Amino acid sequence: MKLQRQKGLSLIELLIAMTLGLTILAAAVQMLMASRNSSVVNNELSRMQENARFALDIITDDVRKAGFQMIGASPLQSFLDGPCGSWNPCTLNNSNGDSDRFAVIYEPHIDEPQTDCTGAEVDLNNEESKGMANVYFIEDGSLRCRGYNLDLSTWNGESVNLVDGIDNMQVLYGVVDEVGQWQNSTQYVTANEVDNWTTVNSLRVALLVNGGFASSSRSNEESQFAVFDSGELVFETGENRELYTATIYLENTDFDPKVSNLGPKEQDDEDSESEDD
């Protein structure tokens, strides 16, 4: 009797084939996950850069106008250090990790819309106007602004949300030794340390921006930041964060105008830090 040769795979061959198949499948899944994570990180970075640029552009544009007044009008101070509404002072250096706030004073040009940073109309006495103040601050993770009418000593409506995803804002003021002299001896101090606001020639702003996406893989990770004089800021929310800074030189002072606006690692005297939270 002639025996037929058995056809098919042996158990060992089948196990080897299954192992190879699972290995290839695992590699494909790993590549897919890596591609997804990379896409998420890139989207977060783009979102942070866009929000930071937009926020710094808004602040820079307004700070450049600080102290502007029409010809023949009474000189204006660049920043409001006195009270506005229930806020006393209006320009404030906070402590314990809280964000700073600052109020930019100027008189809108007569040929431009008489509006504040919220877009609301401002009723000013153009002949003897004290100007208006745009107050910038952080609330609920967003950069907000509110207008204050110095002529009427009242708020010009409610605040508006300008940019989301801003965790913290710190501000330093550049002061020089003598008004009218452009020197390299500019020192950057907090609002509490400014003795004479007419000696302020620049503003240095730092914004800590988050990516807006909390990853479960980073939920237990802790990240720490030190933003100017804020002290140690600790986050455990699982979001990427990055620090952006800008130095803005005032144009309506006795000093030569010079403006510098930057993002991370773009100038020698500015720093940017990024960390995964």
UniProtKB/TrEMBL annotation:
Q: What GO biological process terms does the UniProt entry carry, in alphabetical order?
A: type IV pilus assembly
Please list the residue ranges that the record marks as compositionally biased, kind Acidic residues: 267-277
Q: Does the keyword Membrane apply?
A: yes
**Keyword Thylakoid in record:** no
| Annotated protein name in UniProt | Prepilin-type N-terminal cleavage/methylation domain-containing protein
Taxonomy, top ranks, is:
Bacteria, Pseudomonadati, Pseudomonadota, Gammaproteobacteria, Cellvibrionales
Q: Which organism is it from?
A: Marinibactrum halimedae
Query: Where exactly are the transmembrane stretches of this chain?
Result: 12-33
- Out of the domains of life, which is the source? Bacteria
